[in-house]
Design goal:
By secondary structure, the protein is of the alpha+beta class. It is built from 13 helices and 19 strands. The protein is globular, with a radius of gyration of 25 Å.
């Protein structure tokens, strides 16, 4: 694979730092001499806990394994290494966690480089004020939110665009660890700095954001991209995989409500006229992508405490119960309301919640399920109790699991158990749970206004 003339080569080693990649794929990528290595390290896919608690999803062991190999690859190539959404949610704690891991790896491997750090956390009080001043707009599907909700957030991050990464590249940073960033910004920053047109750049960035997932081997591994003035080409770094026009085109559907118009902080990518051509069985070229610049906007993500939770998982196989789950559950909930009042100072439905869902029936789609009337031979039952204290959640869950397992139906003529619990005890304390509060954008703002930057010379003998 020859290097593009008048273009730039971008290497995406895996879809998420900590998920791993093949050693032979990395070795081949180094031989192909990319101009930049970029890798996403976070997402909201796994729910609000990681933002609310400022805890990483991936283990330190997994991050060290991937980051150590990438740092050595960067050192041999002398190109930038960019990591975005550090610590899963991109909080300041997540950036510092990645910084400490990176510094330790540099010492262990005798590496020297200039480190750039980009922070993006926002004050909940400031965001609440913006909301009162109508400077924030809710995105489609955002939860109903007011300024008090915003003020209750434990952590709020602002999502960086390419400009924040470019700010550190302009300071000749070799390794960049960024807070919450758009998945695409990591890959678009350097090509845009080199003067390549935004249409091909942003479409390529969208294509390679998840590494080899858009290839014929949908696994945690690498993808190499060449971007030029008229388009881009992609191929996996593993020789047993390929990128087909269908696989590349279909990735515009991933995590997007509209596969044609894809919004970035600086504008909108238009893939409506894109053409996908197979160069060979491993390589696809894309042309015709456009980009329309818009007033700059920055997305905010925020999570707030929901309460402490205790959960229980069980299974129901009694056909008589399965035929009358709604009245069976409703009758139990009436009794539970009285028992909560007896055992706690709280009210069911206010401070305490009991949520019961049935997997194998309509638990995934909830009210949107189109086949809720179908009765299977068994259903899983999930009981979730949420309360202000863990002890209260556990207290409520204990009587709920016991009462539910023996709750009668008219067809029973004796005392029978209707739920099989796979664990003993069935109650599992989850700790503090969180909810997403902010899925909003700040408009009328400059690209760097919400972010803070540091640089550090890392020197080892």
């Amino acid at each position: 694979m020859t290097k593009c003339v008048d273009g730039i080569r971008v290497f995406a080693p895996t879809g998420a730092l900590g998920m791993g990649f093949l050693d032979e794929s990395l070795a081949r990528a180094v031989q192909m001499k990319p101009d930049v290595i970029a890798c996403d390290a976070g997402s909201t896919d796994s729910g609000p806990h990681y933002l609310g608690a400022a805890k990483p999803k991936m283990s330190e062991q997994a991050i060290r394994r991937d980051m150590g190999r990438l740092l050595k690859a960067r050192d041999s190539l002398k190109v930038p290494l960019i990591i975005g959404s550090c610590g899963t949610s991109g909080t300041d704690t997540g950036v510092d966690w990645m910084r400490d891991i990176t510094l330790a790896l540099a010492t262990e491997n005798n590496l020297t480089f200039k480190l750039g750090l980009a922070y993006c956390e926002q004050s909940s009080d400031q965001v609440a004020k913006w909301m009162l001043d109508s400077k924030i707009q809710a995105l489609p599907g955002a939860p109903a939110t007011n300024s008090d909700d915003a003020a209750s957030c434990t952590h709020i991050v602002a999502m960086m665009g390419a400009e924040a990464i470019q700010h550190l590249l302009e300071q000749d940073c070799d390794v960049i660890l960024a807070g919450r960033t758009t998945d695409t910004a990591l890959f678009a920053a350097l090509p845009l700095m080199r003067g390549l047109p935004p249409g091909p750049v942003w479409h390529c960035a969208k294509t390679i954001e998840c590494g080899a997932v858009c290839s014929t081997k949908m696994r945690a591994d690498g993808l190499m991209a060449d971007i030029d003035a008229s388009g881009f080409e992609v191929e996996p770094t593993a020789l047993d995989a390929g990128c087909t026009p269908l696989g590349v085109a279909s990735h515009t559907l991933y995590e997007n409500a509209d596969p044609i118009y894809i919004t970035e902080p600086s504008g909108v990518l238009d893939t409506g006229n894109a053409q996908y051509l197979a160069i060979n069985e491993r390589r696809t070229r894309v042309t015709g992508s456009g980009f329309e610049h818009k007033p700059y906007s920055i997305k905010l993500e925020g999570a707030a405490p929901l309460g402490y939770q205790t959960v229980a998982v069980g299974g129901i196989r009694d056909p008589y119960i399965l035929r009358q789950l709604e009245p069976w559950t409703a009758e139990m909930m009436e009794a539970f309301e009285l028992r909560v009042a007896e055992l706690t100072p709280y009210t069911l439905g206010d401070e305490v919640r009991i949520d019961i869902s049935y997997y194998g029936r309509d638990a995934v789609m909830l009210s949107g399920e189109t086949e809720a009337d179908k009765v299977n031979h068994e259903n899983g039952i999930l009981i979730v109790v949420t309360a202000p204290e863990q002890e209260t959640a556990n207290t409520v869950a204990r009587f709920v699991t016991h009462a539910a397992s023996h709750w009668p139906i008219p067809e029973w003529k004796g005392f029978i158990s209707g739920i099989a619990f796979p664990f003993s005890p069935p109650e599992i304390d989850r700790g503090m749970a969180y909810r997403f509060v902010l899925h909003h954008v700040v408009t009328d703002i400059s690209p760097l206004e919400l972010f803070r930057f540091k640089t550090l010379e890392v020197k080892n003998a």
